Amino acid sequence: MEEHGWEAARERAHQLGLGIAGTSEVLPLDRAAGRILAVDLRTKYPMPHCATSAMDGYAVNGTGPWLLLKAHATNPGSGREPVLGAGEASAVVTGSLIPGNTTAILRSEHSTLDGGVLSATRELRHGADIRDAGREASTGELLAPAGTLLRAGVIATAAVAGHDELELTSPPVVHLVFTGDEVITAGYPAPGQVRDGFSPVLPHVITALGGTTGSSVRIGDTLEQTIEAIDGEQARASSLIITTGGTGFSERDFVRAAVREVGGVEVISSIAMRPGHPSMLATLPGGRLLVALPGNPLAALMAVATLVDPILRAGCGRPLATLRSAQSAVEFELLPGRHRLIPARWVPDTTGTGPDALAPAEHIGSAMLRGLASADAIMVVGPEGAKAGEPINYLRLPW
Q1: Mean pLDDT of the chain
Q2: CATH assignment, 33-46+136-169
């Protein structure tokens, strides 16, 4: 059994994820949140599309003083551009269309008005507080590349840039298989039983990573049930199958045997990481992928960050998540041959001279979730360890 290094496992998962990329669909902006752009987002016209005022005050023509026109010189939507004559001014508000021949915007607080004559109380610079057409972006300018996750800021920008709808990637469909005779979904667990920590959260995690949960099933620990769960009708309708538990090599672990029985191939049999070592990635007939997560909760979610996130990113046309660098607040000893993935929190710099640092959260055993619940990031500690104050890699929480 070949054990993959952590970085190699991420890259292999992303490479295989390219094979489950689907088609695209067009949706209105109010349904685009959380989805992925299938094509580059570009402006349909200049931003702003016409010259506007950056302040409340007066559009003026010339150096002043100015004759204030009694009516606003702007008439939004009329199709006719209002024009100021020499020495004339018109009241404007922030964001409003400014008349032709406007040479500057005189702010209200920098002006005086006496009998219809407007004067400036300080020197007025030519072009002051005018938002020229196209100042933010020109027609056809790239606003966001394909593969961008659509959050509020991108959607609002798309609206301002003239888009009513967007072309989005179709999310990869995921089938979830929850295993374990000892797992209960409600009430108090008896000795030997455990509460289910996966089914309430994995569908939300999958959505956050760009996929969609098409179906799910809960099974006991038998080979027959495992085979049906990963190769039944619902599983065959999905491009990615995720199982929880049963990834070991004991006589009570059936996921690997089931993969072999249905003609699948283990591509990644284990990963040199802690926690999450017994995670598995396999290919199944029909171009489907299967990720087998360990049964321990924290180990499983670290495997999600290592295998599921890269697969779904690739399936949505996105690159691997970027490894970022921060200062380590603590020392990590050598751990030859293995990466450590550690839920971490930001620690403020107490000297006032340096950046904040990352330190391990509390309660971060492989069977614990409290540490991840309070974490800001996932520290990625290489086999060489790290000294306090040295740079260390980390991943943003992907969900």
Answers
A1: 92
A2: 3.90.105.10
